[in-house]
Design a protein that fits this description.
Elements lengths: L20 H12 L4 E5 L5 H12 L3 E6 L2 E5 L12 E2 L4 H12 L4 E5 L10 H9 L3 E4 L8 E4 L45
């Protein structure tokens, strides 16, 4: 069989691509810490990202999902509530890593658990820099594996930390974390307006 394809004179269509997994995790957390209501469109409603959504709900954040790829997140002004039980991260290493850094600076105790697969994954590359910042994190599994018990409290504003490997998903860089106890005197962002 012979097929002949001719060039179309014009292609007029719209393509909807699925949301990005990495951005979806982080967008939910940032919105949860905001000072108001955030609408997230293009959210990836996969299992891993939904574990982050449910984790934030467990921390007292109200999150509505009117459509599979749309979230309405009611920000808690950086003040999360103590969870009533363990926070299940499923098989999402991103959820556990990001929450470890987030919860280290809060004033309550929390415990992050995962499924059998996640429980075999070492978290030392995340725990080490957080401990250097002053975080109190205990990996209850062998060789720094989950579950992670986090005793929240004060963490340092900035540290110098050299990653032991080239590629790491540790939730910090050489610039470290901002201290919740000592917010900056002025916002790093400003809105500029012009008058005509």
């Amino acid at each position: 069989m012979e097929l002949r394809v001719k060039r179309a004179p014009r292609i007029d269509l719209e393509i909807a691509v699925p949301g990005d997994k990495s951005i979806s995790h982080r967008a939910v957390i940032i919105a949860a810490l905001s000072n108001g209501v955030c609408t997230l469109r293009g959210f990836l409603p996969g299992e891993d990202c939904m574990h982050t959504v449910n984790a934030m709900r467990a921390l007292g954040v109200r999150i509505e999902q009117p459509e599979p790829d749309t979230l309405i997140v009611h920000g808690k002004k950086r003040v999360l509530s103590p969870p009533k039980g363990e926070i299940d991260c499923g098989n999402s290493g991103t959820t556990m890593r990001l929450l470890a850094g987030l919860l280290a600076g809060h004033t309550f105790e929390s415990r992050l658990v995962g499924d059998a697969g996640l429980s075999r994954r070492p978290m030392d590359r995340v725990i080490a820099p957080l401990r250097k910042m002053g975080a109190n994190i205990v990996a209850e599994g062998p060789e720094e594996t989950p579950p992670l018990r986090i005793y929240g409290g004060y963490v340092e504003f900035v540290i110098a930390y050299q990653l032991p490997v080239r590629r790491s998903k540790a939730p910090c860089s050489s610039q470290g974390f901002l201290r919740r106890e000592r917010p900056p005197s002025r916002s790093p962002c400003r809105r500029e307006t012009t008058q005509s």
